[in-house]
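Propose amino acids for all 73 sites.
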C-alpha cells in the first residue's frame, strides 16, 4: 500500500512540475515578445494533433482555440 501511495505521489509531483514548467515557459516567451513566432511554430503541430482521438486531440483543440482567441494576446 505504501509503495502504491509513493508511486502516485511521484506521478503527481511530475505532472505538477511539468505544468509549472509550461507556465514559466509561456511567461518567458510572452515577456520576450516571441509569442507570435512560437505560435507559428506550434500551430502546424497542433493542427495535426487535433485529428487524434483521446486526450491528445482534446488538449490540442483547446490550446489551438486559445491561440486563435484575440483576447489572450
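Proposal:
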Amino acid at each position: 500500500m505504501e509503495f502504491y501511495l509513493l508511486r502516485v505521489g511521484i506521478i503527481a509531483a511530475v505532472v505538477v512540475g511539468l505544468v509549472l514548467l509550461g507556465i514559466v515557459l509561456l511567461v518567458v516567451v510572452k515577456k520576450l515578445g516571441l509569442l507570435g513566432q512560437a505560435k507559428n511554430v506550434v500551430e502546424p503541430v497542433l493542427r495535426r494533433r487535433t485529428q487524434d482521438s483521446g486526450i491528445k486531440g482534446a488538449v490540442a483543440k483547446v490550446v489551438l482555440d486559445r491561440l486563435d482567441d484575440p483576447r489572450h494576446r
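Residues 2-31 form the longest helix (30 residues). The two ends are 47 Å apart (CA to CA).
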